[in-house]
Each structure stands twice: as structure tokens, then as C-alpha cells.
Specification:
Structural class: mainly alpha
């Protein structure tokens, strides 16, 4: 496993921590890795930035609801295909349907992320929805 791969695996674990525990967890992991002789991985971990509350909530929701994320990504793909078809003159009915399906899936996942009972930090549900909308069409996905 390369240094980048190892850092990516370890980062995934860290980003599962609540935001208020991220810095402490990151620093402890970097010390542990350095003590084990993994200095390059430790340096890469030490550079990781604390996630925003919205990013943490969306990441947590995506870990806990992978089927919903998969459905949202499929809805994004469907919307992209419907947009191409509409631009090509094949009608806009599929575009309306795909747009509504994506909105519904974003709203459900955003509600789950936003209404997490363990979340003690405030953030905007609109910001959560905007993040999900963006990533549902992005090539750089969750």
C-alpha cells in the first residue's frame, strides 16, 4: 500500500469522528504513526483539515445511509442524461421527472443529516442540501 493509500484509509477513519474530536484524534494518530516509524503517513495525516459541520454531517449520513447515497447518485446521472436529451430536442418531460426525483432524494438525505440526534453543532439545512445537490452531479463524488 502506498503512503497516499494508507493516508486515505486513515483519513476515512478520522472523518468519521465528530468535528469537536477531529483535531485531537488527528494529532493522536499522527503521533502514533510517527512512533511506529510511518513518518510520511504521519505527516500526511497531520496536514488534514477539520471538516466543516456540514461536510461532517453529509459524510456521516453517507456512511450510515449508503443505499440513499447510491440512489441520489443514480438520480444525478438520470438528471444529466435527461438534460442532454432535452437539449437534443427530445422533450422535457424526462427532465422534469428527473429533477423532481433528485430533489426528493436530496431532501431525504439532507433531513437525515440535519436531524441527527448526536449533532450538537448548529448548521443550516440549506447548506447541507446545497452540498448534496452539488455532489449528486459532480464527477468528484462522496
Amino acid at each position: 500500500m502506498t503512503v497516499e493509500d494508507e493516508a486515505r484509509v486513515r483519513a476515512k477513519e478520522l472523518y468519521g469522528l465528530a468535528p469537536e474530536g477531529f483535531i485531537e484524534g488527528r494529532d493522536a494518530l499522527a503521533v502514533q504513526l510517527a512512533d511506529e516509524g510511518e513518518h510520511q503517513v504521519a505527516a500526511a495525516i497531520k496536514k488534514l483539515r477539520k471538516p466543516t459541520v456540514v461536510a461532517w454531517a453529509v459524510n456521516t449520513a453517507s456512511r450510515e445511509r449508503p443505499a440513499d447515497v447510491a440512489a441520489l447518485l443514480r438520480a444525478g446521472d438520470d438528471l444529466r442524461q435527461a438534460q442532454v436529451a432535452a437539449i437534443s430536442g427530445k422533450g422535457s418531460d424526462d427532465l422534469r421527472t428527473a429533477t423532481q426525483a433528485r430533489r426528493t432524494k436530496v431532501a431525504a438525505l439532507a433531513d437525515y443529516a440535519w436531524l441527527r440526534p448526536s449533532l450538537t453543532l448548529p448548521f443550516s439545512q440549506k447548506n447541507c442540501m446545497a452540498t448534496l445537490f452539488k455532489h449528486s452531479l459532480s464527477r468528484h463524488r462522496f
